[in-house]
Amino acid sequence: MTGEVVERVRTIAIPLFMELGLELVDVEFRREANGWILRLYIDKPGGVVLGDCQRVSEELSDLLDIEDLIGHPYSLEVSSPGLYRPLRLESDFLRFVGQRARISTSSAVAGQRRFLGILRGYEEERILLEREDGTIALIPYALIVKSRLDPIL
């Protein structure tokens, strides 16, 4: 059920986000200590501001009410993905070239499943990640199970 809700919310939200010049980074729908939470992470070039979150929350809330998609009480949260932004799309790996990232794979690539380094590109369905020792890891996109920015603070 939660997977169906997430996919339906994506379908509803994407046209709105395109109209507002925003990117839908991720959608979560899960039960937490205070009840059900529908959480959307949004982004745009230059970053999101509170007004972006508020506008999306208001407009999306109206659309979700019309669809009557969720048959029980829930809270809608809209926020920025933050400094540790997930990298999900192939385009994310190009957009954030030059930034530090952490990547986990489903199976070993050159003997390892966890990588940390600087994104250097995306070619032939592989992420190019420069490790601390200066070598380049070629990580097949299809093997990635989790990836996110990991800035040095």
TrEMBL record:
Functional note: Required for maturation of 30S ribosomal subunits.
Predominant place of localization: cytoplasm
Organism encoding this protein: Candidatus Methylomirabilis limnetica
Domain Ribosome maturation factor RimP C-terminal: 87-149
BP term (GO), one: ribosomal small subunit assembly
Annotated localization: Cytoplasm
Domain Ribosome maturation factor RimP N-terminal: 15-83
Protein name (Swiss-Prot/TrEMBL): Ribosome maturation factor RimP
Similarity comment text for this entry: Belongs to the RimP family.
Alphabetically ordered keywords of this record: Cytoplasm, Ribosome biogenesis
Domain of life: Bacteria
GO terms under cellular component: cytosol
